[in-house]
Design goal:
This protein is mainly alpha-helical. Helices cover 72% and strands 0% of the residues.
Length: 159
């Protein structure tokens, strides 16, 4: 149903389309190969291309896909992907804080003289810090600029 011409017209590698839509790269590959996808996945892809789900479901003609991709701006899609990454990080932060609070409470109730929760909390904190640095583009090898340079090198042209 969804053809790769739409993604290629925007010069989006499958990885970027997956990131923008919040789906896995494998899911994008399956859709592009004509396999069925869940309604939620199709909603995410439709939102990425800035169309309604019924419009996306009606798209079968290659020319329609190309005209669809020329209507929207890729910077908006990149901003949407960034907001989604930040949202996922904030949700994960809330879950992690809740779990660590629960583990600490359990530790204090069962063995108040020995804090066994320190090591897991430290490991979890380090993982959370790396995730936060990545989410907010503070790690040098995972920033959008670095990814873009890598894509340009691979394609041997500027995007």
């Amino acid at each position: 149903m969804l053809r790769h011409t739409s993604r290629l017209q925007r010069v989006w590698p499958q990885e970027q389309l997956a990131e923008i839509s919040g789906r896995s790269e494998r899911t994008i590959q399956r859709i592009e190969n004509g396999r069925s996808a869940s309604r939620e996945t199709m909603k995410a892809v439709a939102a990425t291309y800035e169309v309604d789900l019924p419009q996306l479901m009606e798209i079968k003609d290659k020319d329609m896909l190309i005209s669809l991709t020329q209507q929207s701006h890729p910077d908006g899609a990149l901003a949407l992907a960034r907001v989604r990454r930040i949202k996922r990080f904030c949700i994960q932060l809330g879950l992690d804080a809740t779990i660590m609070a629960g583990l600490t409470l359990l530790n204090l109730l069962t063995t108040p003289h020995s804090l066994r929760v320190q090591r897991p909390a430290l490991a979890w904190g380090v993982a959370l810090a790396v995730s936060g640095l990545s989410t907010f583009d503070r790690l040098p090898f995972v920033t959008p600029a670095w990814k873009r340079r890598q894509i340009e090198t691979y394609l041997d042209r500027r995007l």
